[in-house]
Design a protein that fits this description.
- The complex is a heterodimer.
- Chain A is built from eleven helices and 13 strands.
- Chain A is an alpha/beta fold.
- In chain A, the strands form three sheets. Chain A has a five-stranded mixed beta barrel with strand order 1-2-3-5-4. In chain A, strands 7-6-8-9-10 form a five-stranded parallel β-sheet.
- Chain A is rod-shaped, with a radius of gyration of 57 Å.
- Chain A starts with 13 loop residues before the first helix and ends in an 8-residue tail after the last strand.
- Chain B is elongated and about 65 Å long.
- By secondary structure, chain B is α+β, with helices and mostly antiparallel strands.
- The two termini of chain B are about 30 Å apart.
- In chain B, helix 1 packs antiparallel against helix 2.
- Classes of the chains: A alpha/beta, B alpha+beta.
- The interface between A and B is large, with 39 and 40 residues.
- Strand 7 of chain A pairs parallel with strand 1 of chain B.
């Protein structure tokens, strides 16, 4: 390269190392975009232009500097009405470079008037106090969920995975419950009105439970569920309400008013729908116990019957014993009365050959044979010849 | 009578049969009642899948249900 007449004293020939404009802006763009990422920036809005497409273009400035900003339609929809000239705002934005114009600009996704940030916090606290004073945050207000819901109202937006997630859990666990979907915008403009209208509709439906659900949105969108009208509408629903609108960490005021709070729509569905298989096996268990339950009194009755059989036998044997004792007693009496006992005492009985007891002298004739019965036996005897009655 | 009611009564009956000293007539009556609740509960559990519908608000404050795919 050296020796060229046109060589630049401060470096190589420009022909060799010049960038194209597009090349350099692309390079600068990636440098700018990689510099800070997405950050909060505070400044004053000026010259805001709102295009038919829905995009906003404006300049953000402070006393020392200014920068061009753009906010695409997707985000302006959620930002409400455009701020007036001179409004101090926070924007959440990512710096970029607009290559067509070679312009540095901030691409904003959230725009909040700084005054509103403080106001929003104050408003939330005011709402919380109002709800608390009316007893709407009281724990004893919480109603138990129905054990076996027959119909469930689901309030959510129809785009997104929320409804799908809830229906998947329902199909797996408790397809016996019907689902009535009430479509509502759950973030951005019109969300408060939609949700309030949907909540008020629930009592006109044949449902025994209500789920209000929202997919993972940004934290700022939670403001809808801090709104007093939404909270009061949740409290006004005639059936228990499960809210699944917040994040794991952020709790909305509507969450506090609802009967149950779920971290995700799927978790809300798990709370709402019992497991059919689990209930069925519980029922089988009850059926077993029922059968067993009847076996028990049957067995008891049988045992009782056996016992009463025993008692009968016992009664019989007691009676028999009594009879036996009576017999023995009678026998003893009989024995005492027996003439033989008299003989024991040295008496004898004379009997004729016909067995007749000879009681008087006249009963005896001379030479008449007779029997003498003594205590231990009998002997034959005869009356003397010459001796008749005396 | 709801499934909750059937299950609650069934549990009551089973406990009654298990714990109380009942005569055979009373036990049989309870058993038969228990079987009735058991049958009702099984019918509920065996029912066909319920529908998913979308509630559509219409003019004049009326609402309409439209079947929806899951």
């Amino acid at each position: 390269m050296g020796g060229d007449l046109f060589s630049h004293p401060e470096g190589a020939a420009p022909r060799d190392r010049a960038f194209g404009v597009a090349e350099i802006t692309a390079l600068l763009r990636s440098a700018v975009e990689g510099a800070v990422g997405q950050v909060w920036i505070r400044g004053e809005v000026t010259g805001l232009k709102r295009y038919q497409s829905g995009h906003w273009y404006f300049t953000l400035r402070d006393s020392d500097a200014q920068v061009r900003c753009v906010m695409w339609r997707t985000y302006t929809q959620r930002a409400g009405s455009p701020p007036a000239d001179g409004t101090e705002v926070y924007i959440l934005a990512r710096p970029s470079l607009w290559e067509e114009r070679g312009e540095l600009r901030l691409s904003a996704v959230v725009l909040l008037p700084t005054a509103a940030v403080g106001t929003a916090e104050k408003e939330r606290e005011r709402t919380r106090l109002a709800l608390e004073q009316d007893g709407l945050l009281a724990l004893d207000r919480k109603r138990p969920l129905p054990a076996f819901p027959r119909a469930v109202a689901v309030i959510t937006s129809t785009d997104g995975a929320v409804l799908h997630d809830i229906l998947t859990v329902r199909r797996r666990r408790w397809p016996l419950a019907s689902v009535l979907l009430i479509a509502a915008r759950v973030q951005g403009n019109g969300a408060v009105e939609d949700i309030v209208r949907a909540l008020q509709m629930v009592d006109r439906l044949p449902v025994d439970l209500c789920i209000v659900a929202r997919g993972g949105g940004s934290r700022e969108d939670l403001v809808v569920f801090d709104h007093e009208r939404v909270c009061r509408a949740v409290a006004g629903v005639g059936v228990p309400v499960i809210s699944a609108v917040g994040h794991e960490t952020d709790v909305s005021l509507a969450d506090l008013v609802a009967d149950r709070r779920a971290p995700t729509p799927s978790a809300a569905a798990e709370m709402a729908f019992p497991d059919r298989d689990h209930v069925a096996s519980g029922l089988d268990h009850l059926a077993d116990r029922l059968a067993q339950g009847l076996r028990r009194p049957t067995r008891l009755a049988q045992e009782r019957l056996l016992r009463s059989g025993d008692r009968l036998a016992a009664a019989w044997s007691r009676r028999i014993e009594r009879w036996q004792r009576a017999v023995e007693r009678h026998a003893a009496q009989l024995e005492a009365l027996s003439p033989l006992r008299v003989l024991e005492r040295g008496y004898t009985v004379a009997q004729g050959t016909d067995g007749r007891v000879l009681r008087r002298v006249a009963d005896l004739a001379p030479a008449m044979p007779f029997t003498l019965r003594l205590a231990d036996g009998a002997v034959a005897a005869r009356v003397d010849e010459g001796r008749g009655a005396r | 009578m709801t499934l909750s009611d059937d299950l609650r009564r069934l549990e009551e009956i089973v406990r009654h049969l298990e714990e109380d000293d009942l005569d055979l007539d009373r036990s049989l009556a309870l058993f038969e009642e228990g079987i009735r609740h058991l049958r009702q509960a099984r019918e509920v559990l065996g029912a066909a899948d319920a529908r998913v519908q979308e509630v559509v608000a219409e003019a004049g404050d009326t609402i309409r249900m439209v079947d929806r795919d899951e």
